[in-house]
Amino acid sequence: MATSEPQRATDPEEPSVEISAPEVTSTEQYVKHPLQNRWALWYFKNDKSKSWTENLRLIAKFDTVEDFWALYNHIQQPSKLGFGCDYCLFKDGIKPMWEDDRNKLGGRWLMTLGKQQRHNDLDRYWMETLLCLIGESFDEASEDVCGAVVNVRPKGDKLAIWTGNCQNREAIMTIGQQYKERLNVPIKALIGYQSHDDTSSKSGSTTKNMYTV
After folding, report:
1. How far apart are CA 36 and CA 61, in angstroms?
2. What 3-state class would DSSP assign to 171?
3. pTM, two decimal places
């Protein structure tokens, strides 16, 4: 995969962002609430005629609560995307690919959803995932978070939170436990953490879990 800077999405089928400024009726509305980090939302459309990097498009960046909701409310929900499409929300400066220096030693908490969950749970899970990230919901372990990805697939959609160091067990377990609780996943339903190295070099259809919660 190349790592050149993707161009902004121009495909009419891809998510577009047209955010109009609301009328300001008081000086208090001028004040936005800053986030701890600046974030970038990416969109991947699986066009077989293009390279992987050409299919990855930067939609927008934001660093305030108000700009996040303006963006979120103007794009399609994951359940409305076509098969093979992804959304990726990553800290600004980290590209949503294994090869990025901030990702290559890390891994991901991965949750696979059943087909029926696309209509029942997917959009809610994705919104909660975004709020966990921008709200720094994992306390000090939030520093280890690189981003999150939702994959829309025919056999079952996937949600993942990426972290920067797969050996940082304490932070990883904190993230996994709090993420599972935030999504209200049943205790008996296990989710696993996989290193990117294992995922990229796997020989079969599954990757071994380093940790589970």
Report:
1. 14
2. helix
3. 0.85
